[in-house]
Amino acid sequence: MEVDGQEHLALDLDVLNVTNESRQTYGLRHQDYERYRQYCSQHLRRLRQVLGQTQSSASKPYQKKEFPDEITDSRYLHVLLFQSERAWAYAMEMKRESSSTESRKHHHIVKRFRRAALYASQLSEVAEKHSAEKRTQLDVKAYASLMNGYLKMEEQKWQEALDHYVAARTIYETLAKASNAHQETLCHSTIDEIDPSIRFCAHMLRSSGGTSQHDIDDIVSAMRDKSAPGMDLLEAQLAEVAAHSRQKRAQEMTSISWRHNTVELRNAELAMSILKAQETAQAESGNDVDRFDEVLSAWAEAEKAAKKAIKEDEEATAKVKSSKSAETTQNLHFCYTYAAYNLYARSIQRNLSLAKTIVKEGGRPQDIVKLYDDVLKNVGSIGELPTVQHDHTFEQEVEIQSKYFKAWRCIHVADAYSSLGRYAETLGLFDLAYNYISQARASLQQITPQNDDGLINITEKELQETDQTIRGRKCKAHAAWYLEQGEQTEDVSRKLEDMDLDEVDEVALIKRLDNYPASMTAKRLPHLVDFPPVFQPIPMKPMLFDLALNHVEYPESLSTRSGKDQASGG
C-alpha cells in the first residue's frame, strides 16, 4: 500500500487475540461486565488522545471526529473495535441485571446490541476500504457477523441470527486451518461459544415449523446449501485467504520429516502441493467417503508435482552433474515416495472403511473381496517405491501388511464358499489364512516398526485378534460340515430314533420262549433281549491243591544210589 509516494504496511488487527486478552484480564474471567465496560472506555480515551481524536475543549459543543481519508495506523481499527466491545459489554451487563418481564430494559439492551453491531460493521467496512490484510478483513467480518447475530437473537429474529452465526462460524473454521497453534485454539474456542446459539436458533425455527436439524454440522451444511446472501463471496474470500496462508507457510517449509528421516525441500510448487494435501488430510468432514475422495485428490496432485520435479531434475542433471545435484535427486525421490505412500495408504484406508461398511450392512463377501484385491494392489505399489527398496525395515513392514491383508482376503473368500455350502474349500482357505498370519507374526517379532504416521500400522494385537477370528470361523465351518454329513444319513438317524433301548415295558422274549408275544406288530418288534445284559453270578471252576507231594522224601544223594564214586566224578 502506497500513501504520498511512500510504501506502508497493510492494516493488521488480530481481533480474537485482542478481545480475548482484554476480556480475560479486565473482568470477564469472573463475568464482571461493568469492569470490562469501564476498561473499554478508558482504553478508548487513550487511543483517541494518541490519534488526535479528542475534543478540543469541554466548553465547545461536541464535534464528531471523522477518520482521515487514508488510514495507515491500525489503532484506528482498535477504536472501532473497542467501541463495539463497550456497547456489547453494556448490553450484557444490563441483561444480567434485568428480568424477562422488564420490557423497558429489554429495549435498552437491544439498543446497545444494535450499537455494537453498528460499530462492528463500520470496522469491517473500514478494513475493506483501506485494504487491510486479507486475514484481518475476514477476522473483522466474522466479528461483525457475530455481533449482528447477538442483535438478531435478542430481537428474536431466529433465521437472520442463524445466518449471521453460520457465517461467523464458517470464517473461524477457515481461519483455524490457516493459523498457528494459539490462533487455532482461539478460533475453536469461539466456535464452541457460537454452537449453542446456533442450536438454540435452530430449535426455535423448528418450533415455528422451520428446519429440524439438531447436529451443528448438519445445520451449517444446510445453511450453506441454501446460498444465504453474500455466502458465495464469503466462500471466495475464504479460499483466497487459505491459499495465501498456504503459500506463506510453503515458503517457510524447508524440509520434510518422515520415518525418522529429514530431507531438504526447495521446490516451491512441490512444497505447496504437499502442504495442501496435509491440510486436506487434517480437515474434518461429515461423510467418510467424501473426505477420502478429497484427500486422495490432494495427494494425487502432490504425487504429480513430485514426478514433475524429478523429471525436471533429470533433465538438468543430464547436462551437468555434481555432488550437490546427487543429493537433490535423492531428496526429490524421498519426497516422491512420501507423497506416493500417502496416496496409496489413504486409498487402502478408504477401501478398508468401505469393507467395514459392507460387513455392517450384511453385504456380499464377493464385494469385500474386490476391495481387498485393490488393497493388495496398493500394498504392492508401495513395495515398488524407490525408498522402500533400500530400507530393509520398511520392506519388512510392507511384507507384513501384505500377509495380513492376504489373510483377511482368504477369510472373506472362505465366507463366500461357506455361503455356497462348499466346506472343504472353506477349511482349506482358513488354513491358508492361518499360515499368512503366522508368517506375519514371525516377521513382526524380528523388526521394530518405524511407521510414525499411523496410516497403516499392523500390531501384534491385530494379528492375534485375526488369529482368533480364523480359529472361530474354522470351528463354525467344521460344525457346518458335520451337519451336512448328518443330513446325508437321515434314514439311519431316523431308524436309530425308532429304536428305544431305554424303555423296558415287558420281559425279554428270550426268557419266555414258551409264550407267544402278544405285543408283536409289524411296526414294533417285541423286546428280544436285555441290553446291556444284567451281570449274574456263575459257579467257578474248583481249585485243586496237591498236598501229597509235600510228604514225599527223596534220598540225600542220587549218585550214591546209582553206585558211582563221587570223588572220581571230578
UniProtKB/TrEMBL annotation:
Q: Tell me which InterPro entries the record gives.
A: SRP68, SRP68-RBD, SRP68_N_sf
- Output the CDD domains linked to this UniProt entry: SRP68-RBD
Q: One Pfam family, please name it.
A: SRP68
Listed GO CC annotations: cytosol; endoplasmic reticulum; nucleolus; signal recognition particle, endoplasmic reticulum targeting
Q: Which GO terms describe its molecular function?
A: 7S RNA binding; endoplasmic reticulum signal peptide binding; signal recognition particle binding
Per UniProt, subcellular location reads as: Cytoplasm; Endoplasmic reticulum; Nucleus, Nucleolus
- Gene Ontology terms: biological process: SRP-dependent cotranslational protein targeting to membrane
What domain of life is recorded for the organism? Answer: Eukaryota
Keyword field contains Nucleus: yes
Provide the alphabetized UniProt keywords.
Answer: Cytoplasm, Endoplasmic reticulum, Nucleus, Ribonucleoprotein, RNA-binding, Signal recognition particle
Task: Tell me its family.
Answer: Belongs to the SRP68 family.
Protein name from the UniProt record: Signal recognition particle subunit SRP68
What species does this protein belong to?
Umbelopsis vinacea
